[in-house]
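Supplementary Note 3. Input sequence used for the single-chain structure prediction.
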Amino acid sequence: YFVAWSPDGERIAFSSNRSGSFQLYSKSITGGGEEQLLREQEGTSYPSSWSPDGRYLVYQVNNGKSEDMFAWDVQGEGEPIPLQPTKFNDTVPMVSPDGRWLAWAGDDSGQWEIYVTPFPGGGRKWQISDGGDWPRWSRDGSEIFYLTAAGTLMATQVDGSDDTFQVGATETLFELGPFNDGFDYDVTADGQRFLVVKQAEQKEQQNQQPMALVLNWQNDLRRP
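The predicted structure, written as discrete structure tokens, is reproduced below.
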């Protein structure tokens, strides 16, 4: 469950409950080597993204009371760094392509919204959405895509090239409709095409054979 590509495209991080609760694993996409348990901690863990230098794996943990975000230095031996620790739910942390910013979904306002803060140190945060979830960055870092509660895919212009994050205009892209509890879309490197999951329409089958209900069939069996 939940898959995150490594920056070099050689490995994936994913979550599996094979040990009893969902924890972080990694595996080479070439098929060589065994799946590796990356980290195990209390609660259930789900990976979201890597920093572009491959140093940090960014993930979320559900401890039964709230969902929290962490950055774990996969090249070191230290403890994971808490990201935006609050009593509210903070999920799907996505590191920007330049590694300087973190986008995520939080519900501290009473509804899910997309926010951005410096990575990994945190600090001031900027609200991107007017109701949104499941953020993704464009490859050049100039847009943040997200879904509304109704399943509309949105795009907000952003500029993180300076020390102060700039939030621009928001554009409605298209309707996805009801979506699952997870990413139902991805965007190509040029930002011009989307791969989406849509629920299939229920079509009435043609030439259906009628069903017959026979009552008191036991009496018919007793007849000579």
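The two ends are 62 Å apart (CA to CA). The helical segments are 217-222.
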